[in-house]
Design a protein that fits this description.
Largest sheet of chain B: none
Number of strands of chain B: 0
Radius of gyration of chain A: 21 Å
Radius of gyration of chain B: 20 Å
Number of helices of chain A: 10
Helix content of chain B: over 70%
Oligomer: heterodimer
Number of helices of chain B: 10
Largest interface: A-B, 19 and 17 residues
Distance between the termini of chain A: 66 Å
Largest sheet of chain A: 5 strands, mixed
Structural class of chain B: mainly alpha
Strand content of chain A: 15-25%
Shape of chain A: elongated
Strand content of chain B: under 5%
Number of strands of chain A: 10
Structural class of chain A: alpha/beta
Order of helices and strands of chain A: HEHEHEHEEHEHEHEHEEHH
Strand order of the largest sheet of chain A: 2-1-3-10-4
Helix content of chain A: 40-55%
Order of helices and strands of chain B: HHHHHHHHHH
Chain lengths: 249, 234
Amino acid sequence: MRRLKGVAALLLACAAGSVSAQPITVSAASSLGDAFRELAARFEEAHPDSRIQLNIGGSGLLLQQIQRGAPVDVFASADEFTMSQAQASDSVSGEVRYFAANTLVFIQPLGATPQLNSILALRDAGLRRIALGNPESVPAGRYAKSALEAAGLWTALADSLIPAQNVRQVLDYVARGEVQAGFVYATDAAQMSNRVRVAAPVSVGRPIRYPIAVLNRGKDKPSAQDFVDYVLSEDGQRILAVHGFLAAE
Amino acid sequence: MVETSALAAAMTPLWLSLKVAFFATILSAIFGVALGLYLARSRHRARNILDTLCTLPMVLPPTVLGYYLLVLFGSQGLLGQWLDAAFGVNLVFSLKGAIVAAAIVSFPLVFKPARAAFESVDPRLEQAGRVLGVSEAGVIVRISLPLAWRGIMSGVTLGFVRALGEFGATLMIAGSIPGKTQTLSIAIYEAVQAGRDADAHVMALLISCACIVMLLLATWLTPAAHRKGEAHER
């Protein structure tokens, strides 16, 4: 009987503990990982009753989770295409705002030779392994593909391309020297400046802007909108700038 | 129910999965049977440690295996650099890497039943062979192996199924390159990520059917308990 009372007390304590802070689940693209960890920490400091649960991954994967009913409150993707797919499936409540911008760069392992200085040099460089995000599900891969197509290199390099699950995996492949070159965001390259070298910026013909939105499931949580507001606020924008992101305008 | 275009798209990953599973099973069968025989007969004090090491790939998270493979066989790894220098072979982003990863994860599934099968062979039969002048190698090939055959084949079948479904370690070392290393389980993952439900559905059905058939085969091959101790099976 005493054991039963003990178990009941334990369960009650757990239940009481979980009622006080309903966590806000934020799904953010891989390239936003470090910045959002800091944003979440600062937000929780400013709002002691709120708890942020971060879910970082390739935008395509995050979209699939959301479309299949994952309990996500806020979505920050790495390109407008993924967010518009979320909107098309009626997952987004309210408006979509742009909170940051980035640039695409083409990197090589530090110390690799020959050192290339533009993506046009890829045509004759004879590289056997070039990593990029899988264009089907990774925004950075889509941007890289459009840049290569614009330079007339997409079919020429087809056999050398190694698709990765997200932009951070591309960065890892280059940092480990498993591939000879890769396409990542400038912010990612800066994370591993001691192991990769930025060979050249890559123009993708349109600005790379990150959208953020409160999802349907989060619309009744006032703190979900508070978090989005925080990301767009001066404080939030300053944190993003420290991590290398550009202003969305 | 099954779209023909999705079925056509599933053929290349299916073929890659079958290739990987086939070669991986050959590798794990050779090592699994050899080590199973050695440990079944060994009286060495360290045999429990060796048995644990042989079972380890079955319980280690696939990402841990993938990580160690990458560290050892990657372009910065000791074994990777040696393989490249000596044979010009690179495991990363190649089907060979997928085969090695699948062989390692399926090895314990061959090793354990093989060891149990060899242990269940009546030692008096092996002794009789030696007394009659058969060499040790002959005893193994003509007495132990035939008697342990069903148990070994059951393990080999399980190993094949495991190699067929290998995902985590393969993805880390061989990557997901369509037409080169994108096996069926990886292709399903990619299809789900890209929202291609019809493709994912067909591929999942294919691999599920293959696994069910192979598991039935493995169960049929497993020697029933009451047969233990009998010299011949009808």
